[in-house]
Amino acid sequence: MKLRFVFLAVVATLALTLGADEPSTMPAAGAAAPVFTLPSQDGNAVALDAYRGKWVVLYFYPRDFTSGCTLEAHNFQRDLDKYTRKNAVILGVSVDPVDSHKGFCTKEGLNFKLLADTEHTVTTKYGSLMNHDGTIFAARNTFLIDPHGVIRKVYTKVSPAGHSDEILSDLATLQAAK
User: Fold this and answer.
1) Whose C-alpha in 7, 40, 86, 101 is 20 to 30 A from the C-alpha of 94?
2) What is the H or E stretch that residue 152 is in?
3) Active-site residue, from 38, 56, 58, 69
């Protein structure tokens, strides 16, 4: 009798879970990239739509000045000319304020845009907002967006060390397929 009850409880739970229509908050490859406008490290507004006609590497990262985020940013900076030759721009997004981004770019010699999502709207639209024991930050996710504004590749739980190389390889493959 007890085993039968457990079995029915498991079946009911699976039915409810599998039948649930909870949409993912993270846009998938093939979806239109959610549009936005955010301030960059220089205080100027940056709109995703302004980059139509270019590939966009939209990467979300937890915090300025942390080891993993610094490594990831350095690798993007190292490869910036390669991205430029591939008609691609890099946009980094975190929940840090403009002043933090400005200091991070200055200290680390970063020459691409870091966007301040202090109200968490864009980070939420892209399913990348995290809350760990009351600390709000962006998860390390990246979206490769094509020149028409369509997400072509989604990278989750990114490892900062080889991430730029991985994106460059995928970008070359996607561009060759066109």
Assistant:
1) 86
2) strand 151-155
3) 69
